[in-house]
Amino acid sequence: MTSEAILSVRNVTKRFGGRGDFIARGLSRIGLAQPNAVVHAVEDVSFDLHKGEVLGVVGESGCGKSTLGRMVAGLLDPSEGEIIAKASGANTGALPMQMIFQDPFSSLNPRKRVFDLIGEAPRVHGIVPSEKLDAYVADMMERCGVDGNYRDRFAHQFSGGQRQRIGIARALAVRPEILVCDEAVSALDVSIQAQIVNLFMDLRDELGLTYIFISHDLGVVEHISDRILVMYLGRIVESGPAQQIFADPQHPYTRALIDGVPRLERRRTVYAPIIGDIPSPIDPPKGCHFHPRCPLAQLQCKVERPALRDIGGGRQAACHLIETTAKKEFSIG
Amino acid sequence: MTTVLDVNDLHTSFVTPGLTIAALQGVSLSVGKGEILGLVGESGSGKTLTGFSINRLLSPPGRVVQGQVLLHGHDVLTLGQEEMRQLRGRRIAMIFQDPMMTLNPVLRIETQIRDALRAHEKMSKAVARKRAIAALDEVGIPAPESRLRSYPHELSGGMRQRVAIAIALLHQPDVIIADEPTTALDVTIQGQILSLVQGLCRDRGTALIWITHDLAVVAGIADRLAVMYAGRVVEVGPVDDLLDAPAHPYTRGLIDSVPARGQRGQRLKQIPGRMPSLTELPTGCSFAPRCEHARAACAALPDMTALGPDRSVRCFFPLAEGSA
Lengths: 333, 324
Description:
The structure holds two protein chains of two kinds. Chain A is an alpha/beta fold.
């Protein structure tokens, strides 16, 4: 990726819970209540997003991928660290970032007609003069594959796939440069999912969009992403170009995750899953978060948190063991 | 292989005074001892309804209007309520998608397992407790004795699903119907459940019907697949034949819609349109409006035609091997 970063995320941490309100603090001080637990949903995450790329964020539930997406989209403020967007600003009034949500049933206002769902934001932000709004909304609907004749219908009158298209048209209407897609195809049927994935790829080519594509579905992420972040319990455990990560995962968790994905060409597989449950983010294991489930864990992993290090080829991983193997290779070469 | 469960021309409808919706229109399936049958379809295809019809869990206005469900040759649809109660859980067990929904939130795990045990067998509390510990141990729950005291909300999703599986296996049923049991779970947990269920069914010779929307999941564990579309089975066959050389255009479309390795960034092949609503099904082949191979003859309804031993398809113009 030669172009410069349009979004920089630097050491971002998000904590939930903690102090609580005035009364809760008072009660805990006089010993009448337990202080609230603090959840580190996202811990010290940094990455750059380059123009025109698709960054896939994968991980299991509780890994902080949605929280990260919401912080990037500006829906949540980070507790620490900063998110710097370098939007070009060429489009007057355009909003640089938009989000597309998982559930097209609950993310569209049920009392608004399609025309208002898509057209309200560009009108309010003055992106399109009101006399051109009709044509603008019609264009957005056509681009996203929604029949223009349905502009006066309500969201509940559409199928799941059509509703997701309306959600995409709504997001695109303010001419964003970055789209954060949080599980945007997960709730859809397979055949509809393919239609929406194709739509995302077409829009990227036509409009030069940049995506952060958050999903637990590794098949879809592998298909659409240029670069991937793998997260586990709030931390990035591995990042790098999608092709290399899927071909040759370095972190034991990434390996387990990729091996665990059922695939059409894997018949009558005997699954050899990694053991144990995902620990609670309220009380994550010390040292490397993954060590209780890791088949390779050693003493060091239990006490010392592995830093995210470059391991060559534009890739990074947070694992003590990779570091030693990399050193070995260096000493040999 | 002996056939354990044989479903013959099953029709299920939702009958209301004004409107009758035919949701299942002639579903036929069979599953043998120790066999895993994958039942695949998108939402609205009737796959869950098939499971519910077999186990007679339909609530009005839904009812089976025609067909047979033969368990070892006996039709369970003719049984009375009490006989069915005896059968359910003992001979036919079910595992559901969301274990939060199937486990009682206000009862301890021990109570729930004990109730399930004593519903079909007379035994003392102490014996039931031993059986419960053994059952939890078998599905890989660590420290089963202390887990018996837990309530469902104290367990993780994967653990809850293990408890549900343990309860389904209590009476060594002949058939287990698993309705999307791993859909709500994370990838690594899904792997654990898949390997568990696979191992248990193989060891005990339990027949398993695995209902899912995810072809890739059943590709890994099933012996045979049945693909459903709009209330009918459109293709049946051994998993390798069916996935390598699908004969029905819908099966082909489903396979192509799944992102495959080594095709990164390419357009996915998509099936145009969407599944028709059950109230406005086309009269002929229900897939014809979305099918690129549809011809005039498709205005009539095709029957299941045998393509070979254990392989049949509901299409006038089945795809030849190798064509796309």
